[in-house]
Structure formats: structure tokens, C-alpha cells
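ok so I'm stuck.
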Amino acid sequence: MSKATILADGVRPAVRLERYLPDPPATVWRAITDREQLRSWFPCDVLVGRWKVGAAITFVFPPEVIDLALTGEVLAVSEPSALAFSWGDEILRFELAEADGGTRLVLVDELPAGIAARNAAGWEVCLDRLAGLNPAAETWRPRFEAYAIAFEPALGPQEGPPAGYKGD
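replied:
not stuck anymore, here's the structure
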């Protein structure tokens, strides 16, 4: 596991997370593109017909977590090495590369500056799940608090959970 870092070289800031997964890129590709596999680690249901550039995506969050649906669009597909899509007003990029018999996965989330800590903590939990770990529900809060302290000098005050969030 690696901690999230800030990327500030683009139009908007981004958080970057990197994980080593023991499976080959083709297997990890399925985990980031197959609806059933996404359900095991991604924070919401992902509805997309085909992963092709220009395809519309709908993201439906579980109602017990938050009453929210976002829309997006597939921006780039290069199986099994790169996938990018908009996620509401954010852009998510996944880069997969063979490494030590498995896969080095890099997730970059371009986002509004004020939600960087929230999302970095959330993606850490999601990537834990993708790696086969089962993080406790309360692990998000201390991660968020640490990122809020670390990111505030560069990005300004950090927002907690979104309005209507029903979690901790």
C-alpha cells in the first residue's frame, strides 16, 4: 500500500494512489471494468454498456450510504493498460502495468481541491478491497484526518463527507 500524493501539474489538482496487485494486468483489467467485479470494491454501481470512448456511464450509490447518482463518460480505453472516465465533475484514470509477476495499478483522481483528502481516504479503502483486504468501516475517518492535515497547506481547507452521507 502506498499513501496518496497530490499532483498539482494539471489544470486541477489530483490525488494519486498506487498499489501492487499479485494478479496479471488482464485480471486487474476485468476487476476495473466488469460490473460484478466493480461491485466488490468500487464505491457505487457502475452502469456502462461498453467501455468505449464516448460511452455514457451512470454511477448509482447504495441508498443506505447516500442518495446520489452521478453521470460520466468514457474518455480513454486501452485494454489492459489504461482506462479513464469522468465521474461527476471528476476524472478518474487507471493505469495498469506488469510488475514483478503482478500489476502496478495507479489511480489518479482529478478533482476540486477541497475534496482531495476525502477522496484520497476513500480510494485507499476501495483499493484495499480491490487487493482482497476487508478494511473496517471506521478506517476512513483517521485516513481522512491525516490527509486533511497533509493536504491543507497546498490545497486549502478539506471538506468531510458530502451532504446527505449516511455513514460515520
